[in-house]
Design a protein that fits this description.
The chain is of the alpha/beta class and 580 residues long. It has a domain of 113 residues. It is 29% helix and 19% strand.
């Protein structure tokens, strides 16, 4: 059973914590000098010094941050003033006076779920902040008529139908409905000049509205609207935002808490006459990558080993993404009818996208670019809130010479050329390419391996940023050669005689260096010295690798119309940002 927490109960609890009838407030033995002030006045009409000192001491107990009688006053600037009155003139603190004394109330994160009619007792209330509570409905009949600011950020309000039956306070200047569950276009129909004649500021941030033209048309009826916040809503992902809003609502001075400049007006002048494109465009770029360990060369002639690398990332899988711009590997195959059905219901799957495979280099240039299109703005918003995973993949292919029966026509020439290549004694990349071109090779199925993955935050695209450029640090990777050498060294150390280990530990504890131990050593001891010094090379290799983390240069950008001059066709179906 869920208990409904009333607003006035929460306010009464806060007022009760002020202890207006207890020390150091109210009447009591601690305030006797102040009660006798009329009898102790001097001839000139001034109060006795002892009474004034007593009152100042009591007031200091209310104000000092170190005082045990100090209370929390952030919920209302009138809270401290009311306690001071309880020290100076406690006799005037009647219930009606206390309720009418408050003009500002900030009841934040108190689990309030109901705005009850008891709020009407606060007859002079001008500002009411109820952020981060559990309020589901907005009853305008329970709001004082004097209210000018109403903030309901981060509640659970899903409908504004109640405002159509009862008018809101007539002098309301700010209405904050951000981070609620509003999404229905009919909720916007209540924003009329008759209901909101004084409204200057409206916050609809992080709501579920998806149709930019519908929102703008509804808000255009507010005669005094000067500040509008739509940040975090799906409609802000469309290319026409914010230009279409600025050119449609000419009285706006602030949009998403940013000052509207004359240059903004000039750049977007005339944009309101074009049709709004309700399709978002998100361009993903993978530029380059550094920090991949150099692949280990094979010890024998065969098999030939080829390594290639690619970067993959997840994104929403939409059928309309097939015609997107891509430089690099082609887009994946078209979606099935089942996937299309899921898309139409707003339950898109996430598909993996891959760059073209590149051979190893200190800096691997991908220059990958792909533009994703999405008409489901709600699904795209949720995806950006979660962020995406980016992975680096390695593909290794082993190649062997073809058996004689499979290469009879080219056996003699292949053997001859293969022998010539072997005699060269080189194991570089050029030699491997020559072998592959001169020999008839059989390639094994590729072995794919994910080297590392990293999560990329994309929430900034919903908070006003048009582009995110990051250097994704996937940590330090170690080459196969380094790992093999380290493992071999560990095995060799474990197989060495216990006497040798014991002697080495003794020498180390006594401070004897390796050069001192081997300066006049015998042949056997010299051999041991060489064995001890050989692992220094892989140690250097590991140290070098630790200095070079795997870094991928990655960017995500929203398609935006930056000026009206970009448009040559008023129809969105034939004009997209990719064509401009």
């Amino acid at each position: 059973m869920i208990l409904m927490a009333g607003l006035t109960q929460a306010i009464d609890d806060l007022i009760g914590r002020l202890c207006l009838d207890s020390y150091p407030c109210g009447r009591g033995s601690w305030c006797k000098p102040r009660l006798r002030e009329c009898e102790e006045q001097d001839d000139d009409g001034e109060c006795d010094d002892a009474a004034l000192e007593e009152e100042d001491a009591l007031l200091e107990l209310l104000r000092s941050p170190l005082s045990p009688w100090r209370e929390e006053y952030s919920w209302s600037p009138q809270a401290l003033a009311l306690r001071e009155l309880a020290v100076k003139t406690p006799e005037i603190l009647k219930d009606n006076f206390i309720y009418s004394f408050f003009t500002v109330l900030r009841i934040v994160d108190k689990r309030v779920s109901v705005i009850d009619e008891g709020l009407l007792r606060f007859s002079c209330l001008e500002e009411l902040v109820l952020s981060a509570n559990n309020i589901t409905t907005l009853p305008p009949e329970n709001l004082p008529k004097t209210l000018q600011v109403l903030e309901l950020y981060a509640n659970h309000i899903s409908s504004l139908k109640s405002l159509s039956t009862h008018p809101p306070p007539p002098h309301l200047q700010h209405l904050g409905l951000g981070n609620n569950t509003l999404s229905h276009p009919e909720d916007l129909q209540i924003f009329t000049a008759d209901l909101w004649p004084q409204l200057l500021s409206l916050d609809l941030s992080w709501s579920g509205f998806t149709e930019l033209a519908v929102v703008v048309e509804a808000l255009s009826g507010l005669p005094r609207l000067q500040s509008l916040v739509l940040e975090g809503s799906p409609l802000t992902l469309t290319p026409s935002y914010p230009g279409f809003v600025l050119d449609s609502l000419l009285r706006l001075l602030y949009l998403d808490e940013t000052r509207v400049t004359p240059d903004d007006r000039h750049r977007f002048n005339g944009l309101a006459q074009f049709k709004v494109c309700e399709e978002a465009e998100v361009t993903v770029c993978v530029l380059k990558m550094r920090g991949v360990p150099r692949p280990a060369l094979p010890l024998d002639e065969f098999p030939l080993v080829s390594h290639s690398y690619s970067v993959s990332y997840e994104f929403l899988d939409h059928p309309q993404s097939q015609d997107s711009e891509q430089h690099g590997e082609e887009a994946s195959s078209s979606c099935s009818p089942e996937d299309h059905l899921k898309t139409s219901r707003g339950r898109q799957n996430q598909a993996m996208n891959n760059t073209a495979k590149q051979e190893w280099a200190e800096t691997i240039e991908f220059n990958y670019r792909k533009t994703h299109h999405s008409r489901d703005l709600t699904a795209l918003k949720n995806f950006l809130l979660r962020g995406l995973w980016l992975s680096v993949e390695e593909e290794k292919v082993l190649s062997w010479p073809a058996p004689p029966e499979e290469s009879a026509g080219t056996k003699t020439s292949a053997d001859k050329k293969g022998k010539e290549i072997t005699d060269m004694g080189q194991k570089s990349k050029d030699k491997k390419k020559k072998k592959e071109s001169m020999l008839n090779l059989i390639h094994e199925p590729p072995v794919k391996h994910t080297l590392a993955s990293v999560h990329v935050e994309l929430k900034d695209l919903l908070e006003g940023k048009n582009q995110i450029q990051v250097k994704c640090d996937l940590g330090v990777l170690f080459s196969e050669k380094s790992m093999r050498t380290t493992v071999s060294r560990d095995k060799e150390q474990s197989k060495r005689p216990k006497e040798v280990k014991k002697e080495e530990r003794k020498n180390i504890s006594s401070g004897e260096t390796s050069a001192q131990r081997t300066g006049t050593s015998s042949k056997g001891k010299g051999k041991r010295r060489v064995e001890n010094e050989t692992p220094s090379a892989p140690a250097d290799d590991l140290m070098h690798s630790s200095m070079e983390p795997l870094v991928v240069e990655f960017s995500v950008q929203l398609g935006r119309v930056t000026s009206t001059s970009q448009f040559t066709n008023p129809h969105c179906s034939t004009t997209t940002l990719s064509d401009l």
